Here is the input.
Amino acid sequence: MKKSAESGDAEAQYDLGVMYGKGLGVPQDEAEAVKWIRLSAQQGFAKAENEIGVWHEYGIMGIPSNLVEASKYYRKAADQGDADAQFNLGLMLDMGQGVPQDDAQAFKWYRLAAEQGNADAQCNLGLMHYNGQGVPQDYDEAWMWFRKAAEQGNAGAQYTLGVMHDNGERL
Here is the structure.
């Protein structure tokens, strides 16, 4: 793996960075993790760009918290189809963190991630339909997305399905 990473393979660089970050098969080393994942991101590897977005969002791995920078990295990865980055960008747009709040764009990114099976995006898409946030209120659509998320173990979706059932909003 290290030889591939050293020869410039972006996926190997990302994987090696994750290994160093978690101490998997190598001594845990935050600096090495950052080095390899940054090299991968510089080549446009979506998982690495999303990871750096997470670091900026939460101020971890020695990176100061910067929501604007986080959103830039999420967008780079989201534009490549990375479901986790699509969800993360959708959440930032939903909450107006690091970017202007935008329900339509949040819905777009949640939907792209949800269609790839991201349970958190499915749950949030269900909430947008349930509340009529950025889209017309539609309990049937909400139910469908909550159910998909719930089937993957998403506790928020499971709870909301119960609430909907108790309220008679979908039987």
Notes: The first helix runs from residue 2 to 6. The chain has a mean pLDDT of 96. The two ends are 52 Å apart (CA to CA).
